Structure formats: C-alpha cells, structure tokens
Amino acid sequence: MAPRMNDAQPYAIGLFRMVIGLLFTCHGAAWLFGVLGGATGDGGTIPAGTWPDWYAALIELVTGGLVLLGLGTRGAAFVASGSMAYAYFDMHQPVALWPIQNGGELPVLFCWCFLLLAFTGSGAFSLDRLLASRSATVDKQSSEPITA
Fold first, then answer.
1. Buried (b) or exposed (e) across 39-76, using 16+ Cβ within 10 A?
2. What is the spatial distance between Cα 126 and Cα 45, in angstroms, rounded to a whole number?
3. Where are the chain's structural domains?
4. Where are the coiled-coil regions (predicted)?
5. Which tens digit of pLDDT belongs to each residue from 96-114?
6. What is the pTM of this model?
C-alpha cells in the first residue's frame, strides 16, 4: 500500500494546495469585495488602505490565488504563512495563550499549511510544473545540434 500512496503523493499535495489556496482566496475576496458574507457577515468590506486588515486581505487574495493556481507556490506560500503568523501573534495571542482560547485556530492552521507548501512545493496540477516542463523541453531542443 505504501508504494501506491507514495506514487499518489504529488496529486494529494496538488489537491491540498488547491483547497487551501481557494479557501484563502475566498477569505481575502470576502474582506475586500464584500462577497460570501463580507468582512462583517452582512456584505461589508474593509475600508481601503486600513492597517492591517486591508493589507492582510490583499495578501490573502493574491497569495491565495497564486497558491490555488500553483504559480510561484513556494514564495507565495511563504508570504502567506508569515502573514498568518503575524495575524496570530498580533491579534489572537495577546487575548489568551492557546489558540482554542483566543479564537486563533484558523490563522494557526493556515500558517502551518502554507509553511508545509513552502517546503513541499506545488505538487501536481500546477502552473509551476507546467512551466518547468515547457522550459525543460525548450532547453532540450535548444541544446540539440542542428543537422542539415
């Protein structure tokens, strides 16, 4: 069973990446555009340029979209992980020590999920892999000798 699971690992990572990226993108879109209940649950948005909420929502939208597509996954996931670590320690941890006490479970989970993706990469179904395979094909073709 282990060899089959090892063979499926890139696909599992790819699906994991897409789900986490979609959830993060939706969170940023809700805060910025008032969709999916908005920032306050009644369709409200965050006022443009307010610190840190508006910038956090922008980071969520952009990095979540990049992770969802698998484009620049490692860098985007690293930035997203850092933003969630900041959110936890700035907004939640001062309230109480443990995430279950301070309502910080979601930022902690997102932080660790994105940190994992920063180390594992995009997995299957990603633009990163597509671009890498095309680049390898172009490099291989350019290194072949020209014959007449």
1. beeeeebbeeeeeebbebbbbbbbbbbbbbbbbbbeeb
2. 31
3. 2-143
4. none
5. 999 999 999 999 999 999 9
6. 0.86
